[in-house]
Structures are given as structure tokens and as C-alpha cells.
Amino acid sequence: MRGWAGRLLRVDLSSGRYWIQDIDPSILVSFVGGRGLAVKLLWDELRPGVDPLSPLNKLVIAAGPLTGYPGPNTGKLVIAAKSPLTGGYGDGNIGSWASVHLRKAGFDAMVIEGASPKPVYLYVEDDKVSLMPADDLWGLDTFETEDRLRRVHGSNVGMLIIGPAGENLVRFATVVAQRGRSGGRPGMGAVMGSKRLKAIVVRGTRLLPQPADPSLSKIGVEADLAAKRKEGYPFWMRQGTTATVEWAQEASVLPTLNFREGQFDQYDKIGGFMVERGTVTVRSCPNCVMPCGHVVNDAESKQSELDYENIAMLGSNLGIGDLQRVAHLNRVADMMGMDTISLGSVLGWAMEATERGLIKDGLEWGDYRKALEVAYDIAHQRTELGRLLGLGVREASRRVGGGSGDFAMHVKGLEVSAYDCHAAPGMALAFSTSPIGAHHKDAWVISWEVRNDRFGYTREKVLKVIELQDIRGGWFEVMVGCRLPWVEIGLELDYYWRMFKAATGLDYDIGGVANRVYTLIRAFWVREYGGWSREYDTPPLRWFKDPLTKGPLKGAVLNMEGYQRMLTWYYEARGWDERGIPRRSTLRRLGLGYVEGELSKVVDLRD
Questions:
Q1: Which pLDDT tens digit goes with each residue over 72-130?
Q2: Domains in the chain, start-ordered, CATH in brackets?
Q3: Which alpha helices (H) appear in 229-339, and where do they start and end?
Q4: Cα torsion at 501, 503, 506, 509 (round to 10°)?
Q5: Which residues partner with 567 through β-bridges?
Q6: Which of 184, 278, 366, 394 has the highest Cβ tally under 10 A?
């Protein structure tokens, strides 16, 4: 096969053993790489009902057949496991030199199982694998850890690192690379921490796998040049995703005060133009043609890498209208190895719970210093409040009670990304049917929705959600690449199809691959949850119960009947039954017949 290395590295931390396996070519053809390969491995190898923080959980790190080749933003990989935050399938896409080095070491993926009796880090150099003591790294933040490892291994390596949040099993701990690249929102950092794995360092010295067509590099360079010629490219380079703050304010979707509102009075103090004025440098993933990490000096005059999601969730969502303070909170999250979206959500929930008298000595709206203190408490798990919030908003609200679940902004346990959906039913559906919980990356339909059909509950909108999921979550996440050149500046998708065919020599039905991956992920959730309910695919109650009180869309709420109608159409289009469970006929059509046996143990499968 061309384009793939065809090899998998396995590491058992309990025994200290490692071995190399060939990957069945039929699996690569069916699931491609990245998310697809990850869920296939987790389905096949995890015991149903496994504790996500036990040695029996497995951490999968998977590249794709485009990873590392010349072309727009090909320096990414997927890190996946059963999620300690949601209890279902969890993954994250992270840009890191580890992706390129993994491929140059001759691997498409790595599976890490077991748990070390003491802290270690994994060092991979081609086929040579070592477990190195990490006692002196344990307790350090991600920035300090990277600095120390670079002094040992030099700069020509890729690293994936956890901070204190991962070590202390914070349920939304992430994996961090390059002082600000962060991935694995559903607690992939906590999975590493449970295995006492502080870091993964990879050095590959070989050539990338030989592509099927040597013109691959030429197509990649052509795509890079085409991206730079796009009309929106200069503005993107000035503001990146942070320009979304102004757009979200105008569209009344900017999360404000724990998603009570869609507009923030001080939006201009944290928006893209403020970022543009304060940018000191930009950062990017490997092979990036359009850097998205805009770095500003924060409230401590230290550099912090910002994008829209962390500005909105740590700014307007908390009532903080000072960019330097928002940047400080963001830097602390990156250093501690915590997801900024979930951090902003748990802090916003705690502020509202404090306001309602459900939490004593909690946080007040806009209190940046207290928010900073609590962020450290969460990472180090040193106070009762920090330990509560480290569980995520779903579990925290269950423990606090008092109706706090109604304003706990999550789907399936994963906190909602930074788009308010009081008046965006399509985006609410996209959040609720995302394969990892409420995440925007799978179907950012809200821009299309605002332009075309803001308030409709239509079949067309459902099909648009699926179309975007198939491309964004079902294709970019398996090949593996970054969707921003396509989404943000309009780079034609045809470049990616041409690159993929040149790499592998294969033509693909994108929808077929995507539906296979989405359906297997849904099967994983059903198996781990012991069944399924439409409730799991329903967005937070706040959007149905608490109308917006300000702005041009004052009074807006979602309509439950309309939403449930859309959800039924979604299930039908995916080939799932009215409960949201894949039908037998769908499993067989997608080549997933082997899933039937396991699913039949927990649910009554329908034809």
C-alpha cells in the first residue's frame, strides 16, 4: 500500500514491553487513519465498561495518510481513548511535530496500554523505544516540561505533554504541544496521567511513506500557494479565529454569563481588533500555511497564544472584558494542561451557582483573580471547589443539585463550545450529535445557518449538518488535516481529494467513510452506556427554558418539538433507529456487521 506506513507501535507501560505490528490493509482502506483508525482499535480492543482511568483503557495516537506531506496544514494527529469526562468515545486533533516524526519513524499509529508503577515518559526514535524516568518532571507544568525535554533531546523532536491537571486526573485535562497547541478535550490528558505517562517524545529519521503518485508534493505546494492568494488571507493573518468575536456579537451567539446571553457589552475589549493591536507573534502547527495562534502579552507580561474559543469562554462567558486578563487565564490553562473551553464552562457554571446560593464562597461574575485562583485549584485538586469543578459541569451539577443541571452547559458530559444556540437550532443539533459531545469542530453549521435560515427547523438544515460532519469530522479527522484553509478562506476541497488520491492511489466515497466512522463511534457509545436515549442527543435545557434578555433576538429560545423533529430526520439520514441506535441493515451496509454481537447484549437491535 502507498501513503500509509502500515505499521503500529504498541507499548505496555505495566510491563515495560513494546512491539511493532503490521496493520491489516483492509482496516486502513475502511477507516483510513486518525479518528477512524482510533475508534476501530478501541472498539476491537477495549473491554466493554472499562474504567477510563484504569490500566485497561488504551490511548491511541493516530496519524493519517496525508500527515507530514507537503500541503496545507498537514502536521496533525488524533489522540483518542475512552473518555473519563463523558464515559464514551473521546478524541482530540492536535497539531504537533510529533505527528510528522511519528510518520518519519515509520508508524501510522501508536497504542499505549497498562500503567507504569512510577512516572515515565516515552521516547521513540524510529524502531527504538525507551521508557525514561520522569520523577523529576512530575508536577511540572507543560512549558517547563518541554524546556527540560528539549535540553535532553534537542529541538528536532515532537512532543506530547501533560501538566498537573493530567497528573491529578482532572476530567478535562488535555495533551499539550509547542507551548499552546492543545488537544483531547474529553480528558485525554487525564488518561495519560492515570498511566503515569508524563510525555511522549518522538524522533523519526526516515523518509515519509512513499506516495502512490510522486506529484503529491507538487499538488501540496499548489494548494499552499492557492491559499495565500485567497481574498481573505491577509485579514486572516492579522486576526485568525479571533475575528469571530465581532461576528458572534453581531449574530447574537457570543456566549455571555454562562450562555445566558448571546451578546457581551465589552466584546470590543476582547475581540479580533484588540488582538490584532496586541499581537507580538503568531504560532502554528507543522506545515501550516495560515497560522491561527495569535500571541499577546498577558496581564503578567508573559506570552499567551489565543484563539476565538478561549477568548469567548474565558472572557464574555465569565463577564471578563479585559484581553490581557483573559490571556492570563488561557496561559495558565495551557501550562496546567486543561481544556480552555471546559475550564470557561465550569467557571461560568460555578459563578452562576454562587449567584444562586448553591455554592458558598465561590466566584462572582467578572472576578478574574478568583477565577485564576480556582483554575490553579482545579489543576492541583487542592480545594473542595477545585475537586468539584475538576469533574466537569455534568458531574458537578449532579452533586450540587438545586436545579443546577438546567444551567450546566454540556452534551453527554462534554462542555459546549463557544456558540450560544438560543436562536440556532442547526448548531444545537450539530453540538448534540457530535461524536465526542458538544464540540464545534465536527459541524460548524452556525455560519451557514445565520446566512440562510436562522430560525428554521428543516430537513435541509439537518442534511447540511450531516454534510459538514462528513467533511469536517468524518474526513479531515481521518486523513488527518486541518479544516481551516477550507472553512476560513475558502480553499477548494478538491485540493484535499487530489492530495489524498496522490498519496494512496485510491478514490473514496467520502460520505461512506464518514458514516462508517460515525456509526462505529455511536456503537461505542451505546455499548459503553448500556443503551441509548434521545435525551443524550438533546442540547442543554437553558436554550429551551431561559430566553435571551437583550440584543436584537431578545426573547429567543429553542423549540423542543422542532428540535426533536430535526433529530428524527438526523437519525433517519444516518440509518439509525428512532432511539439513535444504528440499525442492523446499516451496520451490514457499512461493513460493520461484527458490531452486532456486542450491541445485541445491551440493546434490541432493529432491522
A1: 999 999 999 999 999 999 999 999 999 999 999 999 999 999 999 999 999 999 999 99
A2: 7-203 (3.60.9.10), 231-390 (1.10.569.10)
A3: 233-239, 244-251, 272-278, 308-314, 323-336
A4: -60
A5: none
A6: 184
